[in-house]
Specification:
Elements lengths: L3 H8 L5 H10 L13 H10 L8 H11 L3 H17 L4 H23 L1
InterPro entries: Glutathione-S-Trfase_C_sf (IPR036282)
Length: 116
């Protein structure tokens, strides 16, 4: 999973105007930090920011509100699905068992989210 250190490497200090400006420019033509849907990178950076950026950072503010609109269970489900994808790359018996467990957890959270 990406860490706060990874976010700092990409955008600098997200508690500074310079770091938020860098994030804002990066998100000018993107809906997500990585790829075309919610990812672990989005969650890490969202949590690193802590609060919505000032309105002057239009793109970062839009992105922050979008990520905040996801229910916590959706975020957990997404993280579990990403973990399944990562574990599936290494098909040892232990990893396959772990992958099956993660798939079951992801399915559980998808049911919870769809019922919410």
């Amino acid at each position: 999973m990406p860490s706060v250190d990874d976010a700092s490497f990409m955008f600098g200090d997200l508690h500074s105007v310079t770091g938020v400006r860098c994030l804002d420019q990066f998100l000018a033509n993107r809906s997500y930090v990585s790829g075309h849907c919610l990812s672990e990178s989005d969650i890490v950076i969202f949590e690193a920011l802590g609060t919505c950026p000032m309105e002057t950072f239009l793109h970062a503010c839009r992105w922050y509100r979008h990520i905040a609109s996801y229910q916590p269970a959706t975020k957990v489900c997404m993280v579990a699905s990403d973990a399944v994808a990562q574990v599936s790359k290494y098909p040892s018996p232990a990893c396959l068992l772990w992958s099956a467990c993660l798939e079951e957890i992801a399915s559980f959270w998808k049911v919870i989210v769809s019922c919410a």
